[in-house]
Design a protein that fits this description.
- The complex is a heterodimer.
- By secondary structure, chain A is an alpha+beta fold.
- Chain A contains five helices and five strands, in the order ββαβββαααα.
- Chain A has a five-stranded mixed sheet, sandwiched between helices.
- In chain A, β1 and β2 form a beta hairpin.
- Chain A is globular, with a radius of gyration of 16 Å.
- Chain B is α+β, with helices and mostly antiparallel strands.
- Chain B has a five-stranded antiparallel sheet.
- The longest helix of chain B has 17 residues.
- Chain B is globular, with a radius of gyration of 19 Å.
- Classes of the chains: A alpha+beta, B alpha+beta.
- At the A-B interface, β4 and α4 of A face β1, α2, β3 and α5 of B.
- The complex binds flavin-adenine dinucleotide (FAD) and FE2/S2 (inorganic) cluster (FES) (2 copies).
- The site of flavin-adenine dinucleotide has 29 residues of chain B, from β2, α2, α5, α6 and α7.
Chain lengths: 160, 264
Amino acid sequence: MAKVPVQFTLNGAEKAEFIDSGTTLLNALRDKIGDTSPKGGCHQGTCGACSVIIDGELRLSCLTLAETCNGAAIITTSGLSEGGVLHPLQRAFLDAFATQCGFCTPGMIMAAKVLLDHTPNPSRDEVVEALSGNICRCTGYEPIIQAVLTAARSNSQNAA
Amino acid sequence: MALALQTFSTVKDANAALRAAGTRYLGGGTLVVRAANEGDVSLSSFVRSTEPSLSAITVSSGKVSIGASVTMAAIARHPGLAALSGAARAVGGPAIRNMATVGGNLFAPAPYGDFTVALLALDATVSSDNGDLPIEAFLATRESNQAIVTAVRFELRTEGVFRFLKVSRVKPKGVSVLSIAAVLEQAPDGTVSSSRIALGCMADRPMRAKAAEKALVGRTLTSDGIAPALTVASDDTSPATDPIASAWYRTQVLPVHLGRLLLA
Ligand SMILES: Cc1cc2nc3c(=O)[nH]c(=O)nc-3n(C[C@H](O)[C@H](O)[C@H](O)COP(=O)(O)OP(=O)(O)OC[C@H]3O[C@@H](n4cnc5c(N)ncnc54)[C@H](O)[C@@H]3O)c2cc1C
Ligand code: FES
Ligand code: FES
C-alpha cells in the first residue's frame, strides 16, 4: 500500500505523518497520531461518535479520508481543555450527568461546540437539531440537551 | 480496509483515471467510504478532482448552476437558493450535510436521494464532460454512467411555485419514508397551468408522478380540485419495503402527504 504524506494542524499543533493511502481520518487520528478522543462506533456515518471539526465544520472522521484534510485545521475533544481546566461544555456534561458510558460524549461535544461557535444562545430546538446526527444509547438525550443549554448560558455570562 | 486515493486538479484527468477497474469517484464519501468500511471488495481505489468549478454555485438571471462537489450545507446557507434550503436540509444530520454533495446525491439509491427529488421536479440538467442530459434520462441510466458529473443546472423557482416535503419517522433527522417535490404554476384564475411532481422512495430512484401531474392541470388547489390527482398519485410506483416503511405503507400514505403539500 502506497504511503502518502498528510499534514494538518490538530488542536493547534502541526502534524505531519506518512499514512496508507485511503486511511480514514478516524483511523489516522487514533492509530497513527494517538488522539483517541474520536470514537469509532459504527463506521457508517450513523452514530456521530467520530465527529470532529474540520475547518470550522462538523464532519464524520470515519467517512473522511485523511489525505483530503491536507492543510486543514482539525479540532477534537481532546483539544478543548486548557491547562487542565475543562471547557465549559465538558464541565456542563459532567455536572448535568450527560455522560454515562461516555462513548458518545466526544462526538456530542464536538457537535455542540460547532453550534455554540455559530449560535452562542441557541434555542432548545436548535440544540436538538445540532445533535441530531449523534446517537446516545445511555442518557435519553435530555441531560445532554440541558448540558448544552447550560454551557451556552455560562458562556454568555462569561462574555457579559 | 485501506484504499488508494488519487487526486487530480482537473476533471479531465480524473475522468481518465476513472476508467481503471475497481475505481470509484469520491464525492463527499458518505456512501462510498461507508461502503469501503463495510468491506465492499469491488472498490480498490478512489478518484477525486479538486477543480474549483466543481464547488461553485452561480445564480444569475433566474438560472442556477450548482457544481457537483457543492455540499447540502452550502446550498442550505446560500442566500440565492432559499427556496431550496428545505430540500438541502432534508439530507441527513449536520455532519452529513457538511459532507454530502449534490453529485453524490444523484447516485444515492432509495431511501436516499432526497435532494435529487427536488432536482427532478425542477427539471434540472445534469452536466458532465460528455455533455448535458435531462435529469430524467440521467437517472434512468445512472448505473452505466462513466463520466464525472460536473454540475446541475435549472431555472430558479420561488417558494410557493417550488414545494418540497420529506416524511420521516425520526425527527428532526431521519431517513425518508418518502419525499415529494413539486413545481406548480397557476394561471391568474388560480387553476394549475402546469405541474411537475417528483417522488422519492416510491421506486428504486426518484420518479415523476405523471398521472397526478396531468390530473392537476386546469384544477384549483382546493380539496375538491386536487382529489383526482390524489386518486392516481400511486400510479406506476414500485416502492421498496425497508426498515423505514413497507411498500404497502408508502403507497397508502403518499396521497395523504401529497395532499398536504398541494394544499400548503
Ligand atoms: C447517516 C447517513 C444519513 C443519510 N441521510 C440521507 C438523507 O436523509 N437523504 C439523502 O438523500 N441521503 C442521505 N444519505 C446518503 C448520502 O449522504 C447522500 O445521498 C449524499 O448526497 C451522497 O453524496 P456524497 O457526495 O457523500 O456521495 P459519495 O459517497 O461520495 O458518492 C456516492 C456515489 O456517487 C458517485 N459520485 C459522487 N459524486 C459524483 C460525481 N460528481 N460524478 C460521478 N459520480 C459521482 C460515487 O462514485 C458513488 O458511487 C445519508 C447517508 C448517511 C451515511
Ligand atoms: S463511527 Fe463515524 S458516525 Fe459512527
Ligand atoms: S453516554 Fe453512553 S452512549 Fe451516550
